[in-house]
Amino acid sequence: xxxxxxxxxxxxxxxxxxxxxxxxxxxxxxxxxxxxxxxxxxxxxxxxxxxxxxxxxxxxxxxxxxxxxxxxxxxxxxxxxxxxxxxxxxxxxxxxxxxxxxxxxxxxxxxxxxxxxxxxxxxxxxxxxxxxxxxxxxxxxxxxxxxxxxxxxxxxxxxxxxxxxxxxxxxxxxxxxxxxxxxxxxxxxxxxxxxxxxxxxxxxxxxxxxxxxxxxxxxxxxxxxxxxxxxxxxxxxxxxxxxxxxxxxxxxxxxxxxxxxxxxxxxxxxxxxxxxxxxxxxxxxxxxxxxxxxxxxxxxxxxxxxxxxxxxxxxxxx
Length: 318
Known about the structure:
Elements: E1 8-12, H1 37-48, E2 52-57, H2 62-79, E3 83-88, H3 102-107, H4 114-119, E4 129-133, E5 136-137, H5 140-152, E6 160-167, E7 178-185, E8 191-203, E9 206-209, E10 212-214, E11 219-227, H6 229-242, H7 247-250, H8 257-266, E12 271-276, E13 282-283, H9 290-302
Parallel strand pairs: 1-2, 1-4, 2-3, 6-12
Antiparallel strand pairs: 4-11, 5-13, 6-11, 7-8, 7-11, 8-9, 9-10
Helix pairs in contact: 1-5
């Protein structure tokens, strides 16, 4: 397969990581040789047939990001025939003709959200692509499924997407509450509803959110999507509508992928195939998560999931 026919991987790494308690959580080393979570995602994506990596970052973290990731990972990717490019999520990057009061920018502390992160890639992504969070480890299975979907279904239908569906019990932190998209899936394996749910906590019997019990076997979204270039056009339209809200609300409101995709589903504008995966997620949401994540990677090495030297198993021009 020629490189230009391969799907791209968009890695959303612009988040501030406020719950991490300072520092840039996406850059925390967790592997035995100082590898970070992004390294494993990039390895798994290349192995699964992705041909380009797009990092979505903020200008403020560019220096650290390039020092810890770019200068090290780009040569490894190039050796495997994969190019890395950068997109910058900027709070002032608004659709043409849209302006907001300066007080919104003065008071807002975070980027506009995951929907805006993907929108930051316009002009850079012209092939089917997957989207992931920088600080989540997804496992190999989901990358393989998404790559296959994007090369086959995603290449033919601009409004037919995919989502890696994880099991809730496999995505919880032992150290605090998390946010997940609780999904409803029809008998044909298509997403019908995704409800962004906050304050999900692990319990002895499963999970609860805001006092309500949740089925630990329910399918959830971990922001791992398979999308097409046409989706970016829809994102632009949705962002214009999002920005029509009250200026006071826009100080904290986020333009989130699961919420917008759910709107598109309800409007009948798109379809989303759920690709089930039994892999266990892990990531650094809280500082206390780091030792458990490091231990989990050590176990993956022991099982032979990864080679002692990461990327050494990838062929040149992969």
